[in-house]
Predict the 3D structure of the following.
Amino acid sequence: MIVLLNFSVAFFFSFVGTIPPGTLNLTILQLGIENKIKIAWRFGLAAAIIEYPYAWLAVKFEQLITSSPLIAENAQLITAIVMTLLGIINLWSIRKTSKFAEKFNNSGFRRGLLLGILNPLALPFWVGTTAYLNSQQWINLTTTFGLQGYLFGVSIGTLTLFILLAYLAKKVASGFQQSIILKRIPGIIMLALGLYAFIQYFL
């Protein structure tokens, strides 16, 4: 019962928490737009796997991380740098595709692992979410099986949303496969979010 409850709660918060525009779901949207569903599956699987250790670290070091002003103060800056760089790389790769960029873009699993590891929002998100869920007594992480149910819920929730986004993007963009503007939208959004994060950090 505890395992199922933990899994369900983690699945819901993982699914909903992945909806806001970010590096990973924007990349999934782009893969869907370009009709690269197999690559999107590999990308989503790799990114979901990375969510598991991030959620585990959040559970194990929740109090330590939340009490560290260094991480709290620089999370916004890290987000700004990563989002801006990925936005620029995304737009550049569409404009001029090198052999390395093409190989990287077509390697869904490795790309998902790298971007999942570089995702600056995962750890702070799961620290905050886990602390909240614990305080509300909506989850019970005192047993090994309960913890594993929670962690698997995190990964499966993320994967489910990613695949859903890929298929929705494919359906919407089916008539616009050759549109350069459509392919640039994820990169433009990432760049805009990165610049916005910089503004928020320095103001």
Notes: The chain has a mean pLDDT of 77. Residues 2-202 form one domain.
